[in-house]
Amino acid sequence: MSSPHTVVSILEAKKGKENALAAALGAVVEPSQAEEACIEYRLHRSIENTAQFILYENWASKEKHQEQFTKPYITALAEKIGGLLSKPYQTFFASEIGQ
Q1: Are 85 and 12 in contact (CB under 8 A)?
Q2: Collapsed DSSP state (helix, strand, coil) of residue 55
């Protein structure tokens, strides 16, 4: 079996939009976790910078992760976050290194 497709995204809210971004991101956690191909989907908030949010995801495959972008809850998020972000978000893709 291959290792999960890991995705880490870092998003930063505009000043005054922190709670709105937290709510928008929080709304996709449960439906993402319910996806059959989702192994793990967690939302974190930075301790040092409370405007910064980190999504940590593990998917069965890169292809299954890409399918998520067709889901209504993700397309709705994409429509909302543009006005909430202070800068473009960063996304990193990785696979775990065996121990």
Answers
A1: yes
A2: strand
